[in-house]
Each structure stands twice: as C-alpha cells, then as structure tokens.
Amino acid sequence: MTLPLESLEEPTAGSSPLKAARLSRRLSAEDVAGRSGLTPEEVSWLEDGRVYRFATGDDALTAAVLYSATLGIDLAEAREVAGLPPAEPEPPEGRLRRLVVFAALAAAVAALAVAVLVTGRHGHGRAPEAAPVAALPPSWKVRVEVLNGAGDINWTRQVASRIGSLGYRLGRVGRADRFDYRRTAVYYEPGGQALAIRLARRLGTVTVPLPGGSNPRRLVVVVGPHRGPG
Prior knowledge:
By secondary structure, the chain is α/β, with parallel strands linked by helices. Helix content is 44%, strand content 12%. The protein is built from eight helices and five strands; from the N terminus they run ααααααβαββαββ. The chain has helices at residues 17-24, 29-36, 40-48, 57-71, 75-81, 92-122, 153-165, 193-203; strands at 143-148, 169-175, 185-188, 206-209, 218-223. It has a five-stranded mixed sheet, with helices on one face. The longest helix is centred in the middle third of the chain and has 31 residues, at 92-122. The protein is elongated and about 65 Å long. The protein starts with 16 loop residues before the first helix and ends in a 7-residue tail after the last strand.
C-alpha cells in the first residue's frame, strides 16, 4: 500500500539515491518489500549501502535487481543513481539496425518453434509439454521448530518471534542438543529444501538437510550466536 500524502517521508540531505528514488514514487520500504519479496530489513540494507549484511554477494546482487525491478528504474535513472553521466544518445541508424536485428532474431525463434511443433506432431507424436512449476505452500502451512543452539534463550525467542511474524506455525521453542552451533541454520527433511531456502533467505542464513524424516513441511531452525543488530 502506498503511503498517504501526509505520512510520506521526505528525502533528506543524507538520503541515499535509492531511497530518494523510492520516495519519489511515493512508496514505503514495506511497499517495496511486499512487491519484491525482500524483507524491510533487506530494503534498508540496500538503501543504506550495507550490502555486507547479506549472506553472499549473489544474494546482495539478487536483492538489488529485485529492488530496481520493483521501482522500475531504467538505464537512464540507474546511471543517475550511480552518479554516472548520461549515456550518449544512440544515432537513428543505430536504433534502426538494432530493431532489424531484433526482428530477425524474433523471426528465427518463431520459425524454430514452428519446426519443433511440426516435428513433434508428425515425427514423434505430441510435442512434450513443459512441466508445471509447483508453487510453494503458504508459510502458515509450514511448521517450524526453533531450537537454542548457542545458549542464548532470549535471542532464540527473538528469532522465533520473527519467524512467527512471517506467518509460520511455530512448534517447539527450546534448547538444542548442544550449545556449540556456530551460526543459525534452517534444517529440512527430504523434499523440504525449497521451503527451507525461502525461510533462510528471510533470516539471512543457510540451509542444512536432515538425514531423515518424512515431512517436507517441517523445518527446524537452530539458532546460533547473535552477531549484532538486525
């Protein structure tokens, strides 16, 4: 939901270019998070330049792409945000040449698609259909146990509260088998890897397979040491 006029935050002298671009579109950080699949924390990390908070460089790059795509930042605005000079205008003959190439490529792809369909119908029966991509079940259909793996039950409860705020069904919140876990991780049973990855991205951590089990909708989060705010 976009912010009403009276509550819209105004860019300040210290605002980052990304934040200024967001506010110019009258969007809150929560708006961008909801539309891009990022968390509000990840949005603030990008806007504040704290890319080191992401688990990997690939995660930071993916988040930046999702952020810019959500805002609809084009090449000209991206250069402005990055502090680069505007790109030189492409001459008309260059644009025409590029359009011709694109049209030729589109025609080649269309011809290839027709050839594949004809071969499938007359040579080898029906053309194979693409396998449907299964959508992940909603978070409220996934049960998550949260275990204290570093001896800090207060931090464990904070992590559990965050998981609950994401809509997951919380199971047991208690101690793990030991207190020497080096970092937080999301453990999953066979078939639950995609669900574990979705939660791990929200928590900014990693996934680990469990050796057995039969419930792919059961995740176990073992909470490691608290590594600072956020």
